[in-house]
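EI: anyone free to look at a 110-residue chain?
SC: sure, send it
EI:
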Amino acid sequence: MNVVGIVSEYNPFHTGHLYHVEQSRRIVGNGQPCAVVAVMSGNYVQRGDIAAFPKHIRAEAACMSPGGPDLVIDLPTPFACSSAERFANAAVYLLNSTGVVTHISFGSET
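SC: here you go
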């Protein structure tokens, strides 16, 4: 089974995030079962702001959304509040450390 890893903040989880998860699952799964694991910043987000909602509420909102990720992993605060490079490096390290992620999908703001 393919497993997609997504680096996220979900601050808060919204329909654009859901679209990203669904499209990642569709493209990587290619008609086969596909799981999604997201690494999400915790109570503090990359810009150093306090998250809109506590991390457990944001993770639950994502996982409970039909089509949302199957698992959310907490990105430790020192990495979540770091530069984009440290944020991404730590998130990809965590995804790789699971031993199950076969693909990585990401979005960006414009």
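EI: The chain has four helices and four strands.
SC: 👍
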